[in-house]
Amino acid sequence: MTAPVFLVEEDALTGVFPGTVFPLDGPEGRHAVSVRRLRVGEEIVLTDGAGTGVHGTVAAVEGKDHLDVAVTSVRSEPLPRPSITVVQALPKGDRGELAVETMTETGVDAIVPWAAARCVTQWKGERAAKSLGKWRSTAREAGKQSRRLRFPTVAGQMTTKQVATLLSEADFAAVLHEEGSTPLATAELPETGSIVLVVGPEGGVSPEELAAFAEAGAHPYRLGPSVLRTSTAGTAAAALLLGRTGRWS
Fold first, then answer.
1. For the domain 5-76, what is the CATH code?
2. Does domain 83-245 fall into CATH 1.20.1070.10?
3. What region holds the Ribosomal RNA small subunit methyltransferase E PUA-like domain (predicted)?
4. Torsional class of 20: left (φ above 0), alpha (ψ -120 to 50), beta (otherwise)
């Protein structure tokens, strides 16, 4: 069993090196002490979620929400090449969090909520802020659970026009579509740069959206003979690309 991962504030690990004793408190300290019940001598990993990880052992435990970590090593992960962004149309119910969770565990680098024309779910007003907060919290927790040092970013909700701009800036852009004539498994992929995938809603990507994305350089590709739900398609496609690009080598 690999050591549990806990998230610290951005830049908190700056200047930390082997031999340093790092204090972990607050919500993460409480989780480590009161929920995970870590004890002196057990291994632990701290990360800023941006690629820096500190490995160490628990040196001391105080109260219900504080422990000291004796740092044994510091590791910094480079930015992934190529990066993989999934534009995710808003699913119904809690399937959005399911999509974020599994894509994070798989290794996606960025997730973009998309207000597609045929989405049953709509993010507006307070609901938009609350739903986006849930997606970001899910990405953080899934990042820790899957032992990642670099967590995926979850952007603010985008319109179709904004998504088209994002696609136009990518080194490879694709729309997952059951009627795509080209399999994603045979697409020519870049060795570096960025890959952006669009996952449509349960009702499908509208002809107008397909046209806008095609104008931006993104064409339809199919995954396989079966039709996946919007909450699982991004994870399946990401796994395929991670294998093909060598990131899962």
1. 2.40.240.20
2. no
3. 24-70
4. beta
